[in-house]
Structure formats: C-alpha cells, structure tokens
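We now fix the convention by which a protein and its fold are recorded. The integers have meaning only within a learned vocabulary of local backbone shapes. A complete example follows; check for yourself that the lines match position by position.
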Amino acid sequence: MRVSAKAEYACIAMLELAASQGNPQPVRVKAIADAQGIPLRFLVQILLQLKGAGLVASTRGAAGGYHLTRTPETISLADVINVIDRTAPRRQDPTTLAPSIAVRAIRAVWQEIQAEEQRMLEEVTLADLVRKTQQAHEPTYQI
C-alpha cells in the first residue's frame, strides 16, 4: 500500500482531533504540529483540505483551532486518505500492452487488491485508532 506523507500526516492530525473529541476547546494547529513533528505550514494546508471536504471545522480567534465535524466512530481512514490522495485509476494504454488473457488476468488481480485495500481502510475508524493509542499507554505490571 502506498500512502503519501501528506495522507499520513492527515491521518495523524485527525487522530489528534479524535482524541480530543468532547473537549470544549478546539485543538490548535500549532499544538498538533508540535506534538507530532509535522511542519506547521504543511499541516495548515492539510487541514484546509480536510475542512473543504467537511471532515473538520475551524474556529477563529485567540482560542481558535480545529475540531471534527462528525464523531470519530463515523470517520474512517478511507475518508481521510481519499480526501488527501485522490488517486486516479491506473491509466491503461492500449498501445503498450495487447489486451491478452494474461494482461486481463493481471489487471483483474490489481483491481481486487485495490478493492480489498479500500474495504480495509473503510473498516478502520478514528475511534478504533484512539482505542489503540490508549491501550498503548496503559501501564503494564510485572512481578
């Protein structure tokens, strides 16, 4: 699976927003950038794209920032990645490969893989990721 750095940063930023869901204060862009090591200018562009897609909303002013527009349970990784990495379908140039049985078979496999990848991304929500991060921070007791 190929995910751009921009899409990965978007997922991380959305996870930060999901983790603060329920907090009355919006999350500041600088707080996300500092906590996750994302370049601030790049993060601003990403959040504007996510805002344009209706996944986040912003609040202006000194206490401003961003928050999710939906609950973390209703936002999947596919929602985020598809906004950032709108990939065009593979270009199939009929002059480079003859439409043989082998070519059709290989292309059918690529399509199956892409469909399965999309299905998996649609199943993982921000709420799932928040739970995973919380489990990672649970203390372990050893004797």
The helical segments are 5-19, 29-36, 40-52, 77-84, 101-123, 126-136. The two ends are 41 Å apart (CA to CA). The chain has six helices and two strands.
